[in-house]
Amino acid sequence: MSDSAINQGKRYDNFWLLAGLLGILLATSMSRDINRPFYGLHSWGEAHAYWNARVHLNYGLGYTKGMLTKAVGNPPTEKPLRYLNHPQLPSMIENVPFMAVFGQNELSLRIKKILVACVTLLLFLKILRRLVDDKTALLAGLFFSMFPLIAFFGAYGWLYPVVLFAIWNYLVITKNLEDGPEPGKIHWLCLTLSLFWSIQQAWEGFFFAMAIGFHFVFRSLKNYIQRSHRGISLRTSLIILHSRLTLLKQNEFMKVILRLVKLYLLKKMHLWNSSLQEKIWNLETTRSVYPNLSNLS
Predict the structure, then answer these.
(1) Residue range 148-198, pLDDT digits in tens
(2) What are residue 82's DSSP bridge partners?
(3) 3-state DSSP: the chain helix, strand, coil percent, rounded to 5?
(4) C-beta of residue 56 within 8 angstroms of C-beta of residue 96
(5) What global pTM score does this model have?
(6) Cβ burial 246-262 (10 Å sphere, 16+ → b, else e)
(7) pLDDT tens digit string along 230-273?
């Protein structure tokens, strides 16, 4: 019995209902002390990002120029400090809308965190359900929902939902999902946009994009080798490729050796000619000084 048939036998009709219950569990755990101020060893990072968003909201994009603006002062200075070492868009796009709707308080920002974490959970389950059976996917979702770091910090903004969406489209393109949709141009477009947006979200997005890019390159190389040597194992194909590269290197090496030998011979011939010319010149000089030298017996 194939793995596909086994996984099909473990499909739950109420899978998304159970997934919704996991989302409620996650939202409940993240809602604990939802109005608490940002304090503690690590919460300064969250408060820092939200403070930047509040500057956008209070002083407008005409003042901030869409960049992370610090040290505004009261009254605000004409030349505030700009922070340009991190991507600029997340603070403005992620946090400003929620603060504009729900107010500039901890509640509005944690509502955003809960929404992002639930979207991340659902995308996570959507991918796992096509890779493993439903039971394993739901168990992984339960661990995700009950993980203390997730309950406290959430899913780190929209970076991880965007990355998971990119992974979903990539798995569709490479046909690695069980009963996945047929790949099309829309999946390539979604993959491109999501990878681009993940880099705009945070510097970590670069590593996700790089990992997917490397996987695609090596996968394409593997497929090329298999198409070039049908009926030959991958290991044999790699051996053949290695032997060809070695032969190419040996040929290049022999070319270098022959070139060096040629240069050596040319140099020797040049030195021999110089020595011969010097001997001839010395002989002619000697004859001019001692004209009767050749008559000596």
Answers:
(1) 888 888 887 888 999 999 999 999 999 988 888 899 999 999 999 999 998
(2) 69
(3) 75, 0, 25
(4) yes
(5) 0.70
(6) eeeeeeeeeeeeeeeee
(7) 555 556 666 666 666 566 555 665 565 666 666 666 665 666 56
Structural Rg of the chain based on CA atoms: 36
Distance CA 274, CA 271 (A): 5
In this structure, are residues 118 and 19 in contact, taking their beta carbons and an 8 Å threshold? no
Each residue's pLDDT tens digit, 64-96: 888 888 767 777 788 888 888 777 777 778 888
Q: Give me the sign of the Cα torsion angle 100, 106, 107, 111.
A: positive
CA distance 263 to 15: 76
Structure tokens, 175: 């046909």
Return d(Cα 60, Cα 74) in angstroms, integer: 15
Select from 162, 163, 188, 153 the least CA-distant residue to 174: 188
Q: Is 147 helix (H, G, I), strand (E, B) or coil?
A: coil
Cα 121 to Cα 118: distance, rounded to the nearest angstrom: 5
Q: Given a cut of 70, is residue 2 above it in pLDDT?
A: no
User: How far apart, in whole angstroms, are the C-alpha atoms of residue 155 and residue 118?
Assistant: 9
Let me know: does 103 contact 85? Beta carbons within 8 Å: no
Measuring CA to CA, which residue among 55, 51, 50 is closest to residue 66?
Answer: 55
CA–CA separation, 203 vs 134, rounded Å?
A: 33
